[in-house]
Amino acid sequence: MLTNKQVHEALQIIGEMFPDAECELTHANAFELLIAVVLSAQCTDALVNKVTPRLFEKYKTPAEYAEAPLEEIEQDIRSIGLFRNKAKNIKKLSQSLIDQHNGEVPKTREELMDLAGVGRKTANVVASVAFGTPAIAVDTHVERVSKRLGICRWKDNVRQVEDTLMKKVPKEEWAVTHHRLIFFGRYHCKAQAPQCPTCPLLDMCREGKKRMKKRQADPVR
Ligand code: SF4
Question: How confident is the model at residue 221 (pLDDT cuts 50, 70, 90)?
């Protein structure tokens, strides 16, 4: 496991690699961001960004989604994985925004998590990106990178990863750390092909060292 000093050092290096890391979901306001994050479950941001320009042009308010026939929303998002479930969730979510918040997106994680179909990760992204509330949303990239590097334990669940990161990273850096870890995982420490041989963190990375040892033992890999 990395020491606190090494965690700090690793995050510094990742920050230098991706100084402009930010939310890659296209959105113009908190409501669009909320919809985009719901759509992005088990799907790439790039794919979501292909669908949302037309979707956001067509539906501007929770009321417009709530009033639209479910089948129509399904058709509007059908190129995205799990589109039937997501269409249903968007309708329910829009209705709960109307019922509980007059159609406005609430600002706190707790209120966001009270909305239909909104989990902790979605709430953290919206609270942090749209409203500047310190939060670390743990997605697949954040979890993988944190575990490979040894910031967290392999057996940790998503909530434990979030708690550990919040303990080890200063609060004012939570939001930027979330984006940097995502970029690092998306473009460098990829799920299937992490770039260990050229990784500036190799010296401190337990997973990278293991992979490099395997490569040396079997150079064909
Ligand atoms: S050494 Fe490999 S596994 Fe470790 S952080 Fe770098 S790319 Fe990821």
Answer: low
Residues flanking ligand 1, CB < 6 Å: 148-149, 188-189, 194-196, 199, 201-202, 205, 207-208
Q: What percent of the chain has pLDDT over 90?
A: 96
Catalytic annotation present for 121: yes
Closest ligand 1 atom to 200 CA: 6
Average pLDDT rounded to a whole number, residues 42-64: 97
Within 10 Å of residue 72's Cβ, how many Cβ atoms? Answer: 12
Closest atom, ligand 1, to C-alpha of 202: 1
pLDDT of residue 220: 61
pLDDT in tens, 10-46: 999 999 999 999 999 999 999 999 999 999 998 999 9
How far, in Å, is the centroid of ligand 1 from the Cα of 59?
41
Concatenated DSSP letters for 12-54? HHHHHH-TT----S--SSHHHHHHHHHHTTTS-HHHHHHHHHH
Q: Can you tell me the distance from the alpha carbon of 153 to that of 170, in angstroms, rounded to the nearest whole number?
A: 20
All domains of the chain in start order, with CATH? 4-20+137-217 (1.10.1670.10), 30-131 (1.10.340.30)
50 annotated active-site: no
How far apart, in Å, do the first and last CA atoms of the chain sit? 26
Alpha carbon distance 208, 10 (integer Å):
13
